[in-house]
Amino acid sequence: MPRHLKSAEDFVTIGENIHTTRIVLLNGRRVRTLDDGTEGVPFKDENGNDLFLSIPDEFKEQQPYRQNQVKHFMIAVWKGLNGDAEEQAIGTAYIHREVRRQTNAGATFLDLNVDEVSPYLDIQKASMEWLVKTVEAVSTIPASIDSSNTEIIETGLATYTGAAGRPMINSVALERVEAIKLVTDNNAHVIVTAAGESGMPDDADERVENIDQIMVHIQDAGIPLSDVYVDCLAFPISVASTYGNDYLDAVAAVREKYGPEVHITGGVSNVSFGLPKRRLINDCFLHLAIENGLDSGIIDPIPASIQKVLDLDTGSEPVKLALDMLRGHDDYCMNYIQAFRDGRLD
How many C-beta neighbours within 10 Å does residue 54 have? Predict the structure, then answer.
């Protein structure tokens, strides 16, 4: 087939930002220090009021902070659950701001993940309940309940009222086939990943084999293909030069086998991890993936422009260098990295 997407408007964006894994740099442009020494992230609420998400002392004792990282959404959730009335209001306003930003940027779903809030399941479940309620209070688009633990997904689904639309479950794979029952019980959309029963796939063939196996269970459960979003799992191109083609070839094979009804998605920004000019790489990889049959992405909708991706100037030197790397023609990404050092990617 393989290109399926007809226009930028048809692209399904699963907004990835409301994750407790997300960081800003302590010495970066978003973090400020007040005159009294308080560190945090300034932001504006929906009425334009200046607010400040301060970093609690508890977070300053943790490894991410010592590594120059601020897990700002984790802080917002923590304040919502543990803070006084003022801190709860700040945490809530911070989440509401991100809901509005992603919605205004064209997100179709909002992916919600709290796995890193705590190692304790009861705290994770309480965090998911708070986050779903907080998001749903202002969101006009449905939630994607995301967790590596089925019980946390269950909590999110039980909390979600569905006022903004049917939920999405992120995700189902061979390692937890039992989660398919949550899809049917909740009339949900579902992300189906190419993960195997005991680990990640090695190549395109293994991705497709795993997808074929889990799709048997999906189809046996009567879930329509139009509710299914297949994630072929993108890995960093800096680790192995084959990883771009592994993903792209799997996307093409899935589109060819399952036809136009199924959606194909993925965290495409994973491919650029550890490399400079990540936006350039992400746009180029998304362009290639769409040409191979992708019609959805688990992405940050705020900097992304699907129309820009579709109109990519494939003749420009920066784009050609990124495309060559992603197609496996640049071992260890050395040509791309040298071009960055030479200032040829601007």
Answer: 17
In the predicted structure, residue 1 carries a pLDDT above the cut 70: no
Q: Which fold has domain 8-19+106-341?
A: TIM Barrel (3.20.20)
For helices 150-159 and 121-136, angle between their N-to-C axes, nearest 10 degrees:
30
Please give the backbone phi and psi of residue 146, each rounded to the nearest 5 degrees, phi first.
-120, 125
Question: What residues are paired with 269 via a beta bridge?
Answer: none
Question: How far apart, in Å, are the Cα atoms of 79 and each of 46, 48, 246?
Answer: 19, 21, 41
Tokens of 209: 């084999």
Can you tell me the distance from the alpha carbon of 187 to that of 32, in angstroms, rounded to the nearest whole number? 44
Give the pairing type, strands 39-44 and 32-33.
Answer: antiparallel
Which two structure tokens, joined as six digits, stand for 339?
A: 């071009």
Mean pLDDT, residues 37-62: 96
Tokens of 252: 């093409």
User: pLDDT exceeding 90 applies to what percent of the chain?
Assistant: 99
Domain boundaries, the chain: 8-19+106-341
Q: What is the mean pLDDT of the chain?
A: 97
pLDDT band at 2 (very low <50, low <70, confident <90, very high): confident
Q: pTM for the complete prediction? A: 0.95
CA distance 156 to 145: 6
- Collect all residues with Cβ–Cβ distance below 8 Å to 268 and sequence separation of at least 6: 234, 282, 285, 286, 289, 294, 297, 298, 299
Give the torsion through C-alpha atoms of 257, 166, 283, 241, to 10 deg: -50
pLDDT digits (tens, 9 = 90+) for 181-190: 999 999 999 9
